[in-house]
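User: Hi! I have a protein structure encoded as tokens and I'd like to know what sequence might fold into it. I'm fairly new to this, so please keep things simple.
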């Protein structure tokens, strides 16, 4: 059994159709069918129920799929990790969601560069979902994101839970009074959520806090990114719920108010490839905790 048999079988099982699987693998269908037959002969058991449309897996097929996928993930990680170990120059490619730029990200990166001038650091803005793909492809080494999505090949460390606040136009009635705002006061407002794609995203986290409080915002407009949402709030087009660090943006014509809801928190997560324990990452995690401690920011603490 070769690795390609695993890759071919996973594609067929996920697509539940030989034609689509062949297209996904960029091969013709007859060789794909032959490879799956070879695999079944080699194992001596049927993996796919004969004549099923859409295609169904046998019990053995389901077992094989469940174990083949993590194996393929490990092979992909092994490739990215070996390339990393073999690099002569030490590099650290960081993926980050835009809102972290207004939080501690600049200070963390500045401090990291100061302490580790031998490491070439690069920064890449991307959503949390994009970070997962970029980690797997080896385009980034660490992602700072906000979604707790499950993926067996990624290790996530929760850094802290950040409060959410509401960003209001300067002359909005809720901005004219002091004090916090409750979610019930926002259901009839036009809510600007971001990013529109890819999903799930911070937009779903914001809608989720309404759902958790048994509320449904009446008017929701999805926008491409944080900066667009903030520009539209400044223009009086609606309001937006954002992590509290976004207040550091100091947007003219925008007022921030605390959100008084027990669910109104957004996690900040440190995501890496499961097997990656490189010294650059250890040092990055240590730098994050050092900045938190110096600024008295409450946080979780885990090691790599
Ligand atoms: C933070 O604001 O807590 C943070 C932002 C980016 C990376 C790590 C932490």
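Assistant: Happy to help. Inverse folding works backwards from shape to sequence: for each of the 304 positions I chose a residue that suits the local structure. Here it is:
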């Amino acid at each position: 059994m070769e690795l390609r048999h695993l890759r071919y079988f996973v594609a067929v099982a996920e697509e539940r159709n030989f034609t689509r699987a062949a297209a996904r693998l960029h091969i013709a269908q007859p060789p794909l069918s032959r490879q799956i037959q070879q695999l079944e002969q080699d194992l001596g058991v049927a993996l796919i129920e004969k004549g099923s449309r859409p295609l169904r897996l046998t019990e053995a097929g389901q077992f094989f799929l469940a174990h083949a996928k993590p194996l393929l993930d490990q092979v992909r990680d092994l490739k990215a990790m070996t390339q990393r170990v073999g690099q002569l120059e030490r590099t650290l490619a960081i993926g980050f969601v835009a809102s972290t730029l207004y939080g501690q990200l600049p200070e963390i990166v500045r401090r990291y560069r100061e302490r580790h001038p031998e490491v070439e650091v690069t920064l890449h803005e991307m959503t949390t979902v994009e970070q997962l793909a970029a980690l797997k492809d080896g385009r980034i080494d660490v992602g700072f994101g906000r979604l707790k999505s499950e993926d067996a090949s990624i290790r996530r460390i929760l850094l802290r839970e950040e409060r959410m606040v509401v960003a209001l136009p300067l002359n909005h009635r809720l901005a004219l009074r002091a004090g916090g705002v409750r979610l019930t006061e926002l259901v009839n407002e036009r809510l600007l959520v971001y990013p529109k794609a890819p999903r799930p995203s911070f937009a779903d986290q914001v809608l989720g806090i309404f759902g958790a409080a048994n509320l449904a915002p009446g008017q929701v407009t999805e926008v491409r990114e944080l900066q667009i949402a903030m520009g539209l709030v400044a223009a009086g087009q609606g309001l937006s719920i954002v992590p509290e660090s976004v207040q550091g943006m100091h947007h003219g014509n925008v007022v921030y108010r605390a959100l008084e809801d027990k669910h109104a928190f957004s996690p900040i997560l440190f995501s890496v490839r499961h097997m990656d324990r490189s010294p650059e990452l250890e040092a990055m995690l240590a730098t994050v905790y050092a900045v938190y401690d110096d600024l008295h920011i409450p946080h979780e603490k885990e090691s790599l």
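A useful reference point when you look it over: The radius of gyration is 24 Å. Feel free to ask if any position seems puzzling.
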